[in-house]
Predict the 3D structure of the following.
Amino acid sequence: MITVPLKIAHISDLHFSGRQDRRQLQDFDRLLAHFNTAGFDHLVISGDLSNNADQADWRIVREKLESHGLYHWEKTTVIVGNHDLINLEEEMRFYNALNPLQSVRKKVFERKLAEFCLFFEELITGEKRGNAAFPFVKIINYPSLKIAFVALNSVYPWYPADNPLGARGVISPGQLRALGRESVLASLRGCFVIGLCHHAYRVYGTDSLIDQAFDWTMELKNREEFLSLMNAMDAKLVLHGHFHRFQFYTAQGITFVNGGSFRYTPQRYSELLIDGQGNCDQKFVTLT
Ligand SMILES: [Fe+2]
Ligand SMILES: [Fe+2]
């Protein structure tokens, strides 16, 4: 039987910063309209929806998705990025070296994460679960195959010594444990598994010292643990963003796609075509 491949669009790092930039709003409309006319089954947005951790920017994304009929659990999946949770200027302004109030900052961070999950609950769990929403698994039964999106939060709070730009990432032990359970792995069998996480598995990875310093500020600290989990799940693909570059690479048989940045290249996105046998074709498309 010949089936039409499933079509998934992936964009990342929108970095909305208010509504003044009319061009950016128009570009977003254009892209979403295109996803509809081109017949995409699902859209993934892999974090950094806002530039300054502002709910008003999340609202822009929600409204635009609603106006294009894409604000539905089975149509769109969003995950959180560091810029959705951390406003660097504010962190620095309120930081007091003598009294860092680590636990207070951690609480504020967790509250912000819960706020994101509640704000986008329709696209995350489809029901009210508050801050228990990461990690989440979304299994969608398409006529040709069953897709499982496994979404993790990789944003790590800002700390002056360990995360000075707020851009390093980590997958919490709790998320790794929750997803590594046999019952979860069993529920994924027979699915085409797609991992979602904001941070990159691979940043530059060159020997240059400047690149290494840059890598350190951007890296996913426990990326090998993340990769092991993705392998245990037999994930075929991982979609991420963060490092604003459209890229495609493989690690231990898993294909990683970096969705680049809509903010800087608003006419480009990643297209994934997956057939009923689980064969996947990926390409970056540029609208003209
Ligand atoms: Fe970003
Ligand atoms: Fe980011």
User: Anything to note?
Assistant: Residues 6-286 form a domain with the Purple Acid Phosphatase; chain A, domain 2 fold (CATH 3.60.21.10). The CA atoms of residues 135 and 174 lie 9 Å apart. The longest strand covers residues 268-274. Residues 48, 81-83, 198, 242 surround fe (ii) ion (ligand 2) (CB under 6 Å).
